[in-house]
Amino acid sequence: MNKIIQLTLLLSILFLGVATANSQEDRYRLVIEESFYVVKPENSEKFLEVYREKLMPFWSEMQDRGIIVGEYKLYSQRLHTLDPHWSYKTVVAFKNYAAVDKWLELRDEVYDSLFPGEGGYKAPRKEIDAITESHWDEFIREIPLQK
């Protein structure tokens, strides 16, 4: 009986170590997209309205489907730097490059299921583009600091 308990404990510790190592490796496979927007102050409310009403539900559904990891986030600067100046930044983390491909494949279908008859994912993007002076995306990755 004692040997069974010891064996169970040993296997549990080994499994926990493997699971932890895998989760650490997975975080370095994430594809993180940061999107930057320059918006005039008079368009800020409209920008936030489109994001809150049209894009947040979309990204929440993508999270529910396992396409993205964690929450879709929106940021603004507390203090504006000289360059590059941006008004808003969104951050989304995809599980891997296959998840990015899946997102591209599903985005119109998912958006249409949430907002039927509104023209798919491109409709809110057109609204955002109309009030945005400048926009760029950066794909980043985390680099392990431990060897």
Describe this structure in words.
The chain is α+β, with helices and mostly antiparallel strands. The chain has helices at residues 2-27, 44-64, 97-114, 122-131, and strands spanning 31-39, 68-76, 88-94, 132-140.
Judged by helices, strands and strand pairing, the structural class is alpha+beta
Largest sheet: 4 strands, antiparallel
Percent in strands: 15-25%
| Distinct helical segment count | 4
CATH architecture verdict: 2-Layer Sandwich
Q: How far is the N terminus from the C terminus?
A: 40 Å
The largest beta-sheet arranges its strands as 2-3-1-4
The coarse overall form would be flat
Task: Please outline what is shown here.
With 147 residues, this protein is an alpha+beta fold. It is 51% helix and 23% strand.
List keywords for this structure.
about 150 residues, alpha+beta, Alpha-Beta Plaits, 4 helices, 4 strands, about 25% strand, flat
Spell out the blueprint of helices and strands.
Elements: H1 2-27, E1 31-39, H2 44-64, E2 68-76, E3 88-94, H3 97-114, H4 122-131, E4 132-140
Antiparallel strand pairs: 1-3, 1-4, 2-3
Helix pairs in contact: 2-3, 2-4
